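Thread title: Can someone regenerate the structure for this chain?

I was given the following input by a collaborator and told the matching structure tokens would be attached. They weren't. Posting the sequence so someone can regenerate them.
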Amino acid sequence: MAPLWIFCCLYFALSSVSAVLVPLNVLVLSTPGFVSTDFLESVMQGYGVRYSVVRIDSAAPTRINYTELLWQPDGKTPRWGGLIMYPNVEAMGLLNRSDVDAVWAFQRQTGVRGVKFGAWPSNVGWNPDTTACTSSYSRMNISAAMPLGISGIKRTANLSAEGLYRCPALRSSPAVTSCNMWAADFTNPGIVMPCNVSSILDLSTTYVGGTLVNYQDGREVLAFMFDCGGWSTSCLALGHLAVTWLLQNAVPGVRQALLTVQTDDVFLTTDFDAGQPAGGKLFYRLSYADLAAHISWQNDMSNTLPAGSLFRADLPINGNGILEQTNTGTTAPVDINNEGCLDDPLYISLGCNCWYTGTASCPATLPDFCKSCTKDWAKPLGTGTSRVPQTAVGSSGNWSLANIQAKDALATAVRANTGNVATAFSYCHHTFTHENLDNATWFDADQQLALNIDMAGPAFLNLRNRTLFSSKCMVTPQISGLRNGDALAALAGRGIQCVTGDNTWKFLLHPTNPHYMLYTTPDTNGYANMAILPRWATEVYFNCSTAAQNVRLYNRLYQSYYGTASTISDIMKREAARVVREGLLKLRKDPHMMHQANLAMIDGVSLLMRWTQNVVTEYNRWASWPVQSLKLDDLYAAFLARQDRDACQLTYSLNVTATGAAPSVVVTSAAVPGAPGVPAKCTSSLLLSGGPNAGTPRVATATLAPGGSVTAALTGVTWRKPLP
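Best answer:
Regenerated them for you:
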């Protein structure tokens, strides 16, 4: 026990502590090439918590100086407010005794907590059952000993250990009163640190998967005795528990659970997949009755979600669909070819195969048509042939409202807001005729938007000035024109600042941060600074209105992958799991793509309803955060707000007294005023306990100048008491 005696003597010889300024930044200690910290990074990135990953390489020529890593040069001010180890590096022989002493002294003197994943049971106070090592399914239950704090994760969350390798801790073993570990230069018996442990995650009545460790020297650690990764919904949920506990319920950033569904092609008519009629028809067009059914259903969905939630569909409109119904005299549709090159018969007859592989990978031996028919093709400026006729210019002045009202019940209901169909949904532009813009001229793109603006205006649909209409952002047909500088310039000339992308295509995503939009450049897109807002595709298909139609097309695509035919229940459960895992628990803002045919009530329930109900059911098993749907312009604003907040390079530091009170926070901006991307003022956001319910934390905000600092008073905020 000599090593323990030496440690205790050192501990009690330290002087008493005074107040300390603790920055709410997180240090992640890991190893080279280890990627399974991704779930923790996704959670922190979702909030906007600043963190750094330091990888400990035993082969590096220079060892890490942990005093310099953990403390500012004055030796008194900490650099971090939370410490994560995954794998459990301090117990792997990667740290010397002096390194461990430095880390532990830092935690004692600052009150900083630690979180560990992949911890070996005996290192954190439990005996392992080495005969039961597995990655098979086991339900994990959050015990009453786990403080949920402001995480908003439900104690009844549907946690599963499937795929998470572990040698579980034995609950029935004699109580362990020490947490033993070794390091690179340790001699037996290593460090035998007295500790008190509680099970916070039960694998069964026999086994424990997670533990809260209180060490005799005053440190506190949350340890999970299994591996984790970002592919696991359970790990993401545990990531929220871990990060909010780690930062002691003072979390920098914003937590928004957003679920927005955009149903493109509203007012158009969609042909069903060949040989798949539904409702006695080969096509579908949205009806007033369909919208009315969705209004009452939306209210039910909002009430099914946690308090403060609001679900609302967003309807991108194509005004020419109204004229297709009217088709009388001067109120006739603009009749043009709307298709892109992929739908051109030449794509097949010429043997093209480059749409999905991209321009750079297209064989030089293929015809020019093939090489220019790729999703990432950039149209040379000034090229292309206009499809919209000159007679369409200003033609809205000849449209007859009387004819529209006589022949299109849906447009009439929207104009009159019958049954609140104009105010119960969000609306935005999707061009006039749905012309693919990849090879469109400036003239075509300009007229496609100009005519739709007129149709949405007071003279016809009377949508444009309503609160829920978006005029800054739009959805382009087939997510086209994003590498067509002529089209982008035309849209910008009509007030468009952002367009939606498609997350299926990596080149439409921000390369480093999924919470940012991608901005176009002259070199890549032919136009500068149009924002591309990320959007998820779904497995609900544009030409399907019934479950049977969607199942048939899904199985055509995926039956060989799954090895069996899928049912509509299978499809919706997979979709729900994906949306909760990749979207909601990662705090992504991206909306989800559907189409007007998915609103049909032919089955008595629309595909949109089925999809959303499954997502809501799955989500409600995990979290109690309010869920919101935002119109497209408001999504754009949310992305911009995150972009501005990050550009301000904010650090939040709690003033922690010797008693563990935190009466104020110092917010500091490291941004250079006037630098590109830096806003004129910075707005901070700090999530704290004391909100209206478990899923809604209190939010403390402050404004400051870029490069400046502000101290804001706090009430009811505490920090683990610093010790000598």
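Residues 288-304 form the longest helix (17 residues).
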